[in-house]
Amino acid sequence: MLGLTASRAVARHAVLQRLPTFASPLRSLNFPRLLIHRAPPCRAFCATAVLGNAAKVAKVAGEAAATGAASTKTIAGQLVTAGYETQVGLWLLGTSAMLYSMVAIGGYTRLSGSGLSMTDWKIQGRRLPWGEAEWVKEFEEYKLFPEYQLLNKGMMDLSDFKRIYFVEWFHRMWGRSVGVLFAVPLAYFSFRRVVKTPLAIRLGALFALGMSQGFIGWWMVKSGLENPETHTPTLGPNQRPRVSPYRLAAHWSAALTLYIGTVYTALSLLRPSPSVLNPTAQAISAAKRLRLGALPVTALVILTLFSGPFVAGNDAGHAFNTWPKMNYDWVPQEWSTAVAAPLARWRLFFEDTAVVQFNHRSLAYTSVASALALFAYSTTLPLSPAARSAVYLLPCGVALQTCLGIATLLLYVPIELGVAHQAGGVGVLTTLAYLLHTLRTPMVVL
Fold first, then answer.
1. CB of 216 closer than 8 Å to CB of 208
2. pTM of the model as a whole
3. Could you tell me the CA-to-CA distances from 334 to 93, 240, 266, 306 in Å, in that order?
4. Are the C-beta atoms of residues 269 and 73 closer than 8 Å to each other?
5. How many beta carbons lie within 10 A of that of residue 159, not counting itself?
6. What ranges do the domains of the chain cover?
7. Residues contacting 249, CB < 8 A, separation 6+
8. Which helix (H) or strand (E) holds 348?
């Protein structure tokens, strides 16, 4: 018996001596000596195989982690010189915040009746009137135009005029300040060759669009200094002086394009690459499916936002201040009349008070329903944590905007709520832009 035990020990020793590459990993991992020296040869081989596979997995995981870390800057590396991603991204994010505030200030300017107080425009801007004589001169200029003659004649004094003039002046100068704070860093980064060609082209286009906003804004204001029936003939004579809703929509659309373009570019520099946000094949598949549904939802929200200027430009928010019905009707008769002959009566869709408000309501309902349906669909998908967090912002933003819209209507469009509702719409669009950016997927899956 003792001889048999000794022979087995010799055999085990021989096996371990012949397989040093298997034994050494076990010793390096401080496994119990019993497992190493007393296990039968077959168990030693099994343990060795497991450890070998584990080493291979660890190696692959390490390489994947290194690849992921490198790919974090892959997208940004195509846009800026390495090391400047955060600087350029924060600059663009700050510009986005200023553009957002510009939208809110524009809403306040319109709702406070200040937008037509300045009757000329200079590209370089101008200082505020200095002294009583200069203020009187500006006031006398304002008196020559329809807004004063039809609405404010005999009801406005110089102090009232100073208030609305300052609001419009501040709106214009804030826009110029945004332009300077965009142009100067862009020139600096371009001179330092920080910005690469693809990003330079994109930022150049955004800067050109921002410059054009000054001209579009004056083109819009100029329409309010003319007889209103020139721009909205279906409303007949003796209309309330206001800017053309068509030009207001053009100004609004350019502002949204400029804002979203800046936000999306900032996100591309500050956030990880798609391979990091959606790291697995399962997450990539889910992101693609959700993105396919998010695109039409975004289009609906944009269309809803585009209908807003026609409500604002026609003062349609000051009529039918009931909800959910429009006075006593679910569908106003004016809308049925317009739909009966859409080609002949196409202007009614953009100028008639009842029609434009019903269109805006209908688009808002559709946007809310589609956004909530998209969120419900997302709960069935194996999304990555980043995508899951992004999609959870959507119902929150939509719910807040819905409440703001209803309250604004029922309370007859108070200035504060009107501004909040306009800013809330941009907030919902920002949420969708953030979601779409998160749902980007790698071009190649390894």
1. no
2. 0.82
3. 44, 20, 44, 21
4. no
5. 8
6. 81-270, 274-446
7. 306, 309, 310, 313
8. helix 348-351
CA 380 – CA 378 distance, rounded (Å):
5
Residues 266 and 91: their CA atoms lie apart, in Å, by 8
pLDDT tens over the chain, length 446 residues: 434 444 444 444 443 444 443 333 333 334 333 333 334 444 443 344 434 444 443 443 344 344 444 444 556 668 899 989 999 999 999 999 999 999 999 999 999 999 999 999 988 888 999 999 999 999 999 999 999 999 999 899 999 999 999 999 999 999 999 999 999 999 999 999 999 999 999 999 999 999 999 999 999 999 999 988 888 888 877 788 999 999 999 999 999 999 999 999 999 999 998 999 999 999 999 999 999 999 999 999 999 999 999 999 999 999 999 999 999 999 999 999 999 999 999 999 999 999 999 999 999 999 999 999 999 999 999 999 999 999 999 999 999 999 999 999 999 999 999 999 999 999 999 999 999 999 999 865 44
How far is it, in rounded angstroms, from Cα 222 to Cα 119? 8
Give the amino acid at 227: N
Q: How far apart are CA 387 and CA 375, in angstroms?
A: 11
Query: Is-contact 231 223, C-beta < 8 A?
Result: yes
The dihedrals phi and psi of 326, each to the nearest 5 degrees, come to -95, 95
**Got the DSSP string for 158-190?**
HHHHHHHHHHHHHHHHHHHHHHHHHHHHHHHHH
Residue 135 φ/ψ region, left for φ over 0, alpha for ψ in the -120 to 50 degree band, beta for the rest = alpha
CB proximity list for 347: less than 8 A, separation 6 or greater: 232, 233, 234
3-state secondary structure 118-159: CCCCCCCCCCCCCCHHHHHHHHHHHCCCHHHHHHHCCCCCHH
Query: What's the token pair of residue 313?
Result: 């430009």
CB 396 within 8 A of CB 279: no
Which residue shows structure tokens 């959870």?
Answer: 392
Cα distance from N-terminal residue to C-terminal residue, the chain: 58
d(CA 100, CA 260): 10
